[in-house]
Amino acid sequence: VQPPGPGRAARLAVEDVALADVAAAVGTPTYVYGAGEIAARFHALARACRSHPTLIGYAVKANSSQAVLTHLARLGAGADIVSGGELRRALVAGVPADKIVFSGVGKLDAELDAAIAAGVRSINIESVEELDRVAARAHALGRVTSIALRLNPDIDPDTHPYLATGLRESKFGIAMSDAPALAARARALPDLRLVGLACHIGSQILDESPFLASFERLSGLVRALRAEGAPLRQIDLGGGMGITYAPADRELDVERLGAALTAAVAPLGLELVLEPGRYLIGSAGVLLTRVVGRKRNGERDFVIVDAAMNDLLRPALYGAYHPIVPVDVAAGERPPIRADVVGPVCECGDFLAQDRILSPAEPGELLAVLGAGAYGMAMASTYNSRPLAAEVLVHGSEFAVTRARKTVDELIADEQVPAWLTR
Ligand code: LLP
Q1: Is 346 part of the annotated catalytic residue set?
Q2: Using one digit for the tens of pLDDT, what is the confidence trace for 366-385?
Q3: Which residues line ligand 1 (CB under 6 A)?
């Protein structure tokens, strides 16, 4: 998002496209992504890791827009996928199979079959049961399949409890103490090739120390497996690189992170794999919404907007903070008020901001919810029969609708009413 500057119109823009123009053409609520910001983020991370071979496998779950995926694939990103659906999306977007890693705690046989047949770079194994199942599927398909063990390094990444995935009691990964036995079992299975170790400790991490701590835990095992002759080629430290949401948030020093991780990994001679989602797309997206009305209940002021928890769940689910700014910058000069920004959904949890100091937006005016590119549209639903938001990708002074808003009749047309109810 471009703040207004000298010579720039006093209207909020993504790159050179005024958000007011997007709203006029496409309506609201609409997610607007900047292709330039996505590329800048990708290049910044790639540059930070330049001293050592690194695969940046974009975590598709953060934003699985086909346009965003295609953009990242063309920049050279791989993909971290967690389902057959994400596999299909990544392949259709042009991500080469040998740049795709398959994570996830509940992979289905049909999903494994598709990944094995596509020849993905590695399937990250989460349990002994899954190890045996992947071996059986690989055998049935007659394809020797590359796997990695996803370990649970028991590191606390100091983030929201819902976002910490590498703790001992979480459902993710294999306990470090079980890893040697699993590795031995994997190496005895002729249809599998154990090519690496993986972990993902959590999300929205703002410094390198938790990554280095999990690397330390994994590297001991790398040496032990090597000593036994395992042909390891990659170490996957997961995603989780954070972005700035609240003005007071620290900023991740990506150059420092990349330097630290590549320096740590280099002596092992393994390719580094990273699985960033939020870092690549989070700051590149805004949710554009229009004010429906204002009201006051008791001591509380409400700004009611046409985007809701079904469009952006993060505030309701995690108490997440997203800046909300007026699109008409002149509105930002009015004396601020303290208010909740809420949607029309019938839930007390339906808010985009609570107790927020903001400029008093009037009905009909536009607001932009910032930092909404990751886990915004990806977690959206049609709750309250609200069609999904539209999506727009900006490129310089051009924008393209990458997902058109559906009508309610189109939502209804996706369903069938059994004949006995209409007879
Ligand atoms: N790799 C694995 C195995 C993951 O489980 C995840 C995210 C990632 C990579 C990417 O993490 P990122 O770089 O985006 O932090 N809905 C939550 C985030 C859930 C993340 C789940 N796993 C949110 O809105 O904050």
Answers
A1: yes
A2: 999 999 999 999 999 999 99
A3: 59, 62, 80, 103, 163, 165, 200, 203, 238-241, 275-279, 314, 374-375
Query: Ligand 1: which of 42, 72, 203, 321 to mutate, most ligand atoms within 8 Å of CB?
Result: 203
CATH for 35-280, options being 3.90.1150.10, 3.40.50.2300, 3.20.20.10, 3.40.50.2000: 3.20.20.10
13-33+282-413 — its CATH code? 2.40.37.10
d(CA 250, CA 257): 14
Contacts 24+ apart (CB under 8 A), 300-304: 300/339, 300/340, 301/337, 301/338, 301/339, 301/340, 302/339, 302/340, 302/341, 302/342, 303/339, 303/340, 303/341, 303/342, 303/358, 303/360, 303/361, 303/367, 304/342, 304/343, 304/344
Q: Which of 49, 199, 346, 348 is catalytic?
A: 346
Burial zone of 335 (CB within 10 Å; 0-12 exposed, 13-18 middle, 19+ buried): exposed
Distance CA 376, CA 209 (A): 28
At 174-210, the pLDDT tens digits run 999 999 999 999 999 999 999 999 999 999 999 999 9
Residue 340 belongs to what H/E stretch? strand 337-342
Distance (Å, whole) CA 207 – CA 183: 30
